[in-house]
Structures are given as C-alpha cells and as structure tokens.
Design brief:
This protein is of the alpha/beta class. It is built from seven helices and ten strands. The protein has helices at 18-36, 39-49, 59-67, 84-88, 104-117, 154-164, 229-238, and strands at 9-10, 74-78, 95-101, 122-125, 138-144, 165-176, 203-207, 218-224, 241-249, 271-278.
Length: 282
C-alpha cells in the first residue's frame, strides 16, 4: 500500500477513533482496487505468477531474505495487498502461508494470483488491530512499502506483529524512508521540505490510490501518518522483538515521481530495511 498524492487537508487525531480511521482506509483501498486488477499490467502479472520462480522482490530484499536462511520456513505478510510479494517468497524456498489485509478487493486479486501460482494461501480479511483468535504463528512476518504509514497506533501494531511470530521468528520490514515524506515531488520547489518530519496529525488522502503515478481522480478519503524512524525502531523494540539490523538506502522503492530524489551527490535516505527477531523463549 502506498500514498500517491499530496495531502489535501490535516485533521486532528482527536476527531477520530482508531476504528474510524482504519475503516476509512479500508474504504479508500477498496475503492481503488479496480485500478490494480485490470489492464495490461495486471494481465502480465497474472501470467508471470504462473511461471516457475516467479518473483517481484527486488535484489536488496531478495538478498536479505536469502541471508537470513529462511528456506522451508512459514511466512505471513501483513498488509499483503494482492499478495504478489508473499507469493514471491516461494521462489526463495519460503512457505507463503497467510496474507492479511482489510481490503477485500485486493484479496480477490490475491486469490487469482495464488491460483495462477498453484499456491494454497490463507487470505485473511481483517483489520490488523482486530484480528480473530487462532490466526497462528509464523517464522517470518513480512511488511513492505506503504503499510506502516496507514497505521494510527504504531506501538499496538508492533505488539500484534510480535504475537504473529513464532519463537525465534523474524520480522523483516522493507519500507519507504520516513524522511522522504517531508518532500512533495509535485511542488514547484520539490527539493525543499514541504511537510514537517515531526507532524503527528493524520493526513487526509483524497485521490484514488494507484501504483502508476497517474492521476485517477478522487477516491474515498483515507488517512496517512508520518512515523519517524526513531518511533518505528522504538515501537518494535518495546514489543519484545530484538532489533538485529537497520539499513538505510539511497534508492527508491515507491512511485516514479519520487525518482527525482535518487542518484544525487547529496543523497537523502529513500528506503530502509529493518530486521528483528523474537526470542526463542518468548
């Protein structure tokens, strides 16, 4: 999940409950789901999912997962979207077991991709803050770009994530760097900060959400949050997970309009990978 348009208005967190925010985000993603499940790009993805060794994982995430020695281990992806990344884990010998997302429109696409790949995935439609009992535990929890920023309560999110991990299990987060959120590539001055890194208010996203960087008009309103890297690491550590590694990168993993910030002599951080582990006795 990702943000594609400038924030159009700012609202006080006190005006909303957590459930109202997550419900609004579910509506926003479901309203945009059709944009992701049609056209040549979707048909190519569906075709490629049926080929041996299918993977959409980039070399950085692929190398990290291989380094962790997770072959034969079970995996859950939180905020799985259409599960293309979860399905890709099979190419590394990791067993993709469950994808969790609250947008039914994307889970329907996930089912199509899983069927094409010949995988028996469990796809759970649920608010991550209100998971049903008996979900189980996994050896790997994967979180990729555009998940954390839709989460209104970061400490609780990590506590839930920790409970999804089996003892000794790994959490791998490969996300856009929060420092990138202070810039607006559509601004007349895109290299000057447009937003405060320390703003904690929910930011309203009113345009349809797509991956192509194009303007698809208005959609349902969802709410986005800037979570600085310090708060992410702290929330993860306080959930009981041991931080093993945090690497920051100068390469982009998000919409094409952000490419203007890459490959510069004075390079800003654009993405990061965090690895944490649950204690074997936990």
């Amino acid at each position: 999940m990702e943000r594609y348009t400038p924030w159009s208005m700012v609202l006080s967190m006190s005006e909303f409950t957590q459930k109202e925010i997550t419900a609004a985000n579910r509506a926003a993603w479901n309203a945009s789901a059709q944009l992701h499940g049609e056209g040549d790009r979707w048909e190519q993805l569906l075709e490629h999912a049926a080929t041996p060794g299918f993977s959409v994982l980039d070399p950085f995430l692929t190398a990290k997962l291989e380094e962790l020695g997770l072959s034969g281990k079970s995996a859950v992806q939180i905020g799985c979207n259409n599960a293309r990344e979860l399905i890709s884990l099979a190419s590394l010998g990791i067993r993709p077991k469950m994808g969790i997302d609250q947008a039914s429109g994307f889970l329907a696409q996930a089912r199509q991709l899983a069927d094409a790949a010949g995988l028996d995935l469990q796809l759970l439609e649920a608010d991550v803050y209100d998971l049903p009992s008996g979900v189980g535990q996994f050896d790997l929890a994967l979180i990729t770009i555009g998940v954390l920023n839709w989460m209104p309560d970061l400490p609780e999110f990590f506590r839930i994530t920790s409970r999804l991990l089996a003892p000794g299990g790994r959490l791998v987060i490969y996300e856009t760097h929060p420092f990138l959120e202070v810039f607006d590539p559509a601004s007349p001055t895109p290299f000057e900060p447009a937003f405060s890194y320390f703003d904690r208010t929910p930011q309203a996203v009113t345009d349809a959400i797509s991956y192509d960087g194009k303007n698809h008009g208005k959609g349902e309103t969802g709410y986005w949050f800037i979570h600085p890297i310090g708060e992410i690491v702290t929330a993860c550590a306080q959930s009981g997970l041991g931080i093993e590694e945090l690497k920051e990168f100068g390469h982009t993993i998000r919409e094409p309009e952000y490419d203007i910030y890459a490959g510069r002599a004075a390079q800003i951080p654009m993405s990061y990978c965090l690895v944490a582990k649950k204690a074997t006795g936990a």
